[in-house]
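Help!! Second protein's tokens look totally different from the first
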Amino acid sequence: MLRSIDRRLPRGSTETSRALYPLVAALALALTGCSGCSPIVGAECREGLTRCGELCVDLQSDPQHCGACNNACAAGQACVAGMCTFDFDGGPRDGDVLDGELDGELRDGEPEDTLFIFDGDYPDGYLHDGQLPDGQLPDGQLPDGSVSCDDCELPNLCCAGRCVDPLTDHAHCGGCGMACDVSETCEDGSCEPICDPPTTYCGGDCVLLDTDPDHCGRCNNRCPTGLCADGRCVGTPPGHVVLIGHSYQVSRAVIRRVLGNAVWLATLPPVEPALDVLVYEGDASTASRNNATTAINESAAGRTWRRTVFSDVEELEAGLPDAEVVLIHARGNATDAALMALGAEWGPALVAFVERGGVVVVLDAGGSHGGTWQIPAAAGLLDVGGRTTIGTPTLDVVEPGDAVATGLPGQYRAELASAQFDNAGGAVTVVAHEGAPVVVHRVVP
């Protein structure tokens, strides 16, 4: 630019025209938009500037010559201390203010995530959005630059990136990863029971299982009467176990009445207006599940009930404290070993449930095994024998006075997927086929 201007001056120009040269050069510089640039004075640039071509520039701040001649910064960047940086905050560089004054000053996305500014590491706003997780290290939580527990001093230990006291830490009691049970506390590096004998830890309290009506005999076993003695509920209604030789794959009103009567043997809770029924569906068909639900509804007589499905022993134990009935559907594709294993696993919880007045109803017929009856047998609820498929014969109601037989005619026809059992094992035979039990009912005082 200066060279072209110089050629426009006429040769042999007067002193006046020569005097105009600095003014013309200054005007040319202004037109370039170069801040911090100066024209070359004589053959040297003034102190603090560097010669780049025909210009004297400040390499520390010039965005067209940042740190070196012709090293232009990208759009949106500024030249700070000879480095091209993203100066989004628009404020002073890091270190110009006290620690913590800039940290977290901008809200998320306003306009860039620049919450992590480490003192002396980078100019403010240098790191791109997302380069460090938002909120990973709240200001002042750790010393600047620290991301570990190198300063953790004995007797403390560094466990999972956190300095802990192994003498009192519940998750690292006596050493890293040595967690105490929920019923224990960490004292002097050892897990000790929260409750002193004879009390037991139940849901945050130390209780006596022998007398506590909300934890009678075991945690969360609530007595309907509010009375507990020697770990058993006092004055509770009897429990019931009913085995029905119908799968309910196919049903009619009289067969549904059997199941409805069995479920409503349960006594409605004194406070809750609805009966809680825990249902184990296994691999039961949609038709079986729907017909069973219809059977309960048909016998409700204006009463209400809630249906909760469980699939394993953890869900069973979690639901039993609030339940009045457990309904187990007939299994289809299962082995005898699997059925016996379920009964053994569920046994302790089901026995306690029946002893406090609960009702267990088991449906059985069909399937590639010896019978779903093996679940209550392995649980210790019934002592029955084998199972035989019977098709659709006429069945006899042999104990019409039993509560399960309420409203049944003297005879009714079995539907497909019905079965009879070898014996009733001390339970009452309510419905039979040629003397063999089809529906059995055991009352547990």
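Here's the second one for comparison:
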Amino acid sequence: MAAPHSTASRRVSARVGGIAESATLAVDAKAKELRAAGRPVIGFGAGEPDFPTPPPIVDVAVAACSDQRNHRYTPAAGLPELREAVADKTLRDSGLRVEPEQVLVTNGGKHAVYQAFATLVDPGDEVLLPAPYWTTYPEAISLAGGTPVVVHTDESSGYLPGVEQLEAARTAQTKVLLWCSPSNPTGAVATPELIAEVGRWAAQHGIWVITDEIYEHLVYDGAQHASMPVVAPEIADRCVVLNGVAKTYAMTGWRVGWMVGPADVVKAATNLQSHLSSNVCNVAQRAALAAVSGPLDAVAQMRSAFDRRRRTIVELLSDIDGVTCPVPRGAFYVYPSVRDLLGRTLRGTTVQTSVDLAAAVLEHAEVAVVPGEAFGTPGYFRMSYALGDDDLRTGVTRMAELLAEVG
């Protein structure tokens, strides 16, 4: 008989057993569960536009269902016409010129994140990970055998790391820097000058950069999205760009993302995908082809609505004693500090952490937020403003009324 804690008795591998559940999806699932039970919960957890996918894109997908070409396997790297369209779109939107063979179509942005780390990172490699970070990044790094090295930022620096911080964290084992601008979870947008400086630093030290640009079109107040290999061409041969249709075109459920990078890296990632999942759903690929090849009119309309909601939520949160809310310039999140509320009493209970406070807000105000612990920075909330204007105002008002009781 195997010993109680032997390898043979382990039901789940240590590698997979160590993965934490996605905190953002968990909060969203809890909010939906409570709503299904009849409670009027308003959820600020999910990073998901509340708009429908634009009808012309849906129409293409409907027609694709009857096209027998889409009933069969297609190339693992993606439909050739979609890879070409993504290359064209990348040049159009960011100024980065790539060939279709440098594009791998993936099952959503998360799949691209995982495959990028799996392709570049070996056991023992270190990955510089600015915090606050999206919850999936450290899990994908660890699954690849790498070690996340967290580089902490806060609102005093606009949630953006400088080269000095990155250099202080660099070791002989540093292989990759993860970069995300516009940022999930903070909404921070790095200036082109900072991005260029970081890119030149990475190139100087032979560090790869994985840059997540899925919020590229969601910038406000004159902020400018800049793609690192464009403003720092020195890094282009050691840079992988991640993107997808989910946020820009309100297509979170369609599950189409991509990675763009050096041809040898993309080929290696394609080999992995050929065993992992084969091709992405053909109907979804046809829809994505229509999205990236079409006009950006619907995107502009959604961005205008997000901008209005952004200003509203910042104003409402800033009126709450103990809450400090920097103004985000991108994506559709705010990342307010609630540190001044911790260690205090709310309805007879001392709230020690932002996890405690988020639980109290859900229970007593019926508002779902994601605590900063999920993003590597306790003492904060991430709140998505990609929800209806009325729900946004009602939800923050409920939260404000509850937090006014903190003593």
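Reply: Different proteins will give different token patterns, so don't panic. The first helix runs from residue 14 to 17.
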